[in-house]
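Field log, afternoon session.

UNIT: design team B
ACTIVITY: writing a sequence onto a fixed backbone
BACKBONE:
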């Protein structure tokens, strides 16, 4: 009985560690993080353009309703984020911005300008740009390197395939990093590198799930308190 219990526990542990690669939700989480990059750029373009226009026209008084309109648009950031949470993560969250058709123009602009949640959504839009860039670069680099390690047994025999490690100051534009060649010329070495790639891939997928959970929880909390 004890041996069987230990066997099930080990199997369960391995399932939790490596099962992440077979879970469809993992790849939805990965897509959720990758979407932060183009979405963050779209947010930045829209809000920087509107804010610049509004601030520049404040002396003519036209800029004041434009700035209020920026906060109105910020309300629709919640619509986009809620849709992503529902579609990719299965979160039961709905966000409904203030409807301009239900209120005259001046009271509507006053309402969106005095609603603190619109400011939080505007901040979320700019944070999405910053985090989107970091996440995109980090994910691409991590999984590109991991995949290159995984396929080492099939790729190391080709003359034009080179593995290297970087340490210290490789010339990359204005950045200097020294490059050291990592030579793989035997099957055991290739298999060892491939094993390393599998491990880093699994670790990366777990990090994807953890990062998605934290990011989604914060976003959902913001939208929930904004209702």
């Amino acid at each position: 009985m004890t041996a069987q219990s230990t066997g099930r526990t080990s199997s369960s542990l391995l399932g939790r560690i490596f099962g992440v690669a077979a879970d469809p939700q993992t790849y939805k989480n990965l897509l959720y993080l990758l979407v932060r990059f183009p979405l963050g750029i779209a947010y930045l373009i829209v809000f920087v353009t509107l804010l610049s226009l509004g601030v520049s026209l404040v002396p003519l008084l036209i800029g004041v309703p434009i700035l209020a309109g920026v906060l109105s648009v910020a309300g629709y950031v919640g619509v986009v984020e809620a849709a992503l949470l529902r579609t990719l993560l299965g979160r039961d969250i709905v966000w409904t911005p203030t409807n301009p058709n239900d209120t005259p123009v001046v009271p509507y602009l006053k309402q969106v300008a005095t609603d603190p949640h619109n400011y939080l959504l505007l901040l979320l839009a700019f944070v999405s740009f910053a985090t989107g860039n970091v996440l995109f670069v980090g994910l691409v680099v991590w999984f590109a390197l991991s995949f290159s390690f995984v396929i080492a047994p099939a790729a190391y025999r080709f003359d034009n395939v080179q593995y290297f490690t970087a340490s210290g100051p490789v010339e990359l534009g204005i950045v200097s990093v020294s490059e050291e060649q990592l030579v793989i010329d035997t099957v055991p070495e290739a298999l060892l590198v491939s094993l390393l790639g599998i491990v880093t891939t699994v670790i990366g997928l777990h990090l994807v799930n953890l990062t998605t959970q934290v990011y989604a929880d914060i976003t959902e909390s913001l939208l929930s308190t904004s209702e």
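LOG NOTE: The longest strand covers residues 163-166.
NEXT ACTIVITY: expression trials, pending approval
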